[in-house]
Design brief:
mainly alpha; two-stranded antiparallel ribbon; 4 strands; 6% strand; heme binding; Cyt_c-like_dom_sf; electron transfer activity; Cytochrome c domain-containing protein
């Protein structure tokens, strides 16, 4: 399923979709590592889906999953908003200030790109 999603082209004006699918690569590296990761390894769709599917390496990026207040990795219940989502992408820290898994890349994503990705993953 992930390969199908990645292979489907996005509309040229849909920056969020392009970032999610990897058509618009965002530079990234792993925590505590300055080496840049290849763009093919940092596509959101590689690990996340946009449906509430059990067949995923990481949590689905869906409105229901992002907006629901839940405990993540032993932290207090919290939910994402756009600022928290962008902080997670850039710094690897969730809304409750709990560090995300080391496998989550840290992206060098600008405000426009992050807003576009947020709007893409939170639309129904």
């Amino acid at each position: 399923m992930r390969l199908t999603q990645a292979a489907q082209p996005c509309e040229s004006e849909d920056l969020g979709c392009s970032i999610f699918s990897g058509q618009h690569a965002i530079p990234a590296q792993l925590r505590e590592d300055d080496l840049p990761l290849p763009g093919s390894t940092t596509r959101c769709v590689n690990c996340h889906t946009r449906t509430d599917s059990a067949d995923t390496f990481a949590p689905p990026l869906t409105p229901g999953n992002l907006f629901a207040a839940k405990s993540r990795r032993g932290g207090p219940a919290s939910s994402y908003d756009q600022a928290a989502f962008c902080k997670a992408l850039r710094d690897g820290i969730d809304p409750a200030d709990v560090m995300l898994r080391k496998t989550m890349p840290h992206y060098q994503i600008n405000d426009v790109e992050c807003a576009a990705l947020w709007h893409f993953v939170t639309r129904p």
